């Protein structure tokens, strides 16, 4: 009897799925069974009712290209109606082949059953799972239309179970790289071993930065980089997972023989190869005849994010370098003074092209931009409006910018052109969202619609780690990362791991490969700097302009960035912080540094990973953050603010008065006082003149 109920339940479940066919993708977790509720296959539908003899249910189960599934089974919980005819059946099919049938019994209305989906291994592909409800022989004696038999399936309690197994990629191709990355990071974290072959100099480390940035921009996952010297004798924690993409860099003469291609390498080359030590992993190799060519290969890979060649070998040519020079900045950004179309921002297949009651236009904007209060973002929109009713009233659109109300106006049914503006003050550095809420209708926004930012100027109030973690500013002033260097104060794997992890996060928030950035082992004397090290490896002179002085057993701070008699060190703490992040001026004038320091080399890699994790990264603010005993960061503002920007321009004074409105009061009071004083002096002189004339 249980089997009968099970069969009916299963039939019901699948019928419901037929009504809303939804693909189910094999999860990328490996090692244990996967259990999916049927509601996940039916677009969240929790319950469905099937009427015997009228419906067939189907759900498409998709398995990823480099996975297979074993021991697949369906467990169904159901409830059948009392008037279900005797002999009614649920027939189950997989890939159009019947694999079982179950009879229903109205005397036992509630039950569950499990059906095995065959003993075979399901390889990559799409598999239709079907259930058909067949009425029993007694149904033919019932008057037409009088039967009301039904079966209700509890989708939330019913489940599809299977065991996924990852298999090697048979065909390696650069076009599949984004998929490889995302499937290697099921929890939003991508462990990334980076192996160096040969002498690790500044050029090779710069190439590693570009390789990491290129991968970071191809996935939404966070990169946890583990630097290694090849060959690696023991597997490190970051490389222990079978899921994986790893990076290998070095001159062709230093690479292992197992990764040498048949055709000799004569120039900058990027290879996608199977990992000889891990059949399930792939290796991205950056190589050339010398270190400079390795850097060229890494830069071309990082910049050409949409034009990678077919196949698994890319010999970088001069035309690739020329194309790279044209694509240094973010691809989904709106820059000051430039007109950009929605096709460029979101692609021709944007969901904005289909009718919705709400439309959201998202774009990224660089940090540190300032414009006058009268400046606006100009939008020219082509929209197709579809009223919900045929009433005379026209749909009303409400424009919101980053959750701030902007305007409201009526739409004309059909296709029409519109122009609207958004105050620049409503926009922020980083991600911006302009939302259109339509009352009484739906709209489609055409991809030819454009938006244009006004002309702006580079001014900001610093330090501000909030701006740093959302846009990379002030380290990233230009999309290419020009005048930026990454200073590795120690030649250790821990130092390189921490720096590359931070650089990958910086590339993601800046939406740019930062191909103008240079790695260095020497303390910089020009430009903006991301400094990585320990308390003992970074000289005190580097933090001479910082209001914080770090020590092994705590820190001291002052209310001025200059240690003079009027501004002594006024506070100290013995807090057991294990790592610090600081934003301050550089020892030399005109630039800014973000310095990341750990108490010792052993904790540097873990501290960097804890910093880029969302729980810490999303809360950065002020000018100082430190890691507490729980591994998360606490941040605050310790020192004074300073103005970033060209002080020799008249816009500096406009910016100054905009961030310090009380200066208007002071200036107005000064003007009134000056005018009063002038009138008073003029009056005194006139009175003295009149007295002199009267004396004559």
From TrEMBL:
Pfam families assigned to the protein according to its UniProt record, in alphabetical order: BcsB (PF03170)
Keywords carried by this UniProt record: c-di-GMP, Cell inner membrane, Cell membrane, Cellulose biosynthesis, Membrane, Signal, Transmembrane, Transmembrane helix
GO BP term, example: UDP-alpha-D-glucose metabolic process
GO cellular component, one term: plasma membrane
InterPro entries in the cross-refs: Cell_synthase_bac
Record keyword Zinc present: no
Pathway membership, UniProt: Glycan metabolism; bacterial cellulose biosynthesis
TM regions (residue ranges): 662-682
Signal peptide location: 1-26
Localization, UniProt: Cell inner membrane; Cell membrane
Main location, first listed in the record: membrane
Membrane topology: Single-pass membrane protein
Subunit structure of this chain's protein: Tightly associated with the cellulose synthase catalytic subunit.
Record-stated family: Belongs to the AcsB/BcsB family.
Function: Binds the cellulose synthase activator, bis-(3'-5') cyclic diguanylic acid (c-di-GMP).
The name this protein goes by in its record: Cyclic di-GMP-binding protein
Organism: Acidithiobacillus ferrianus
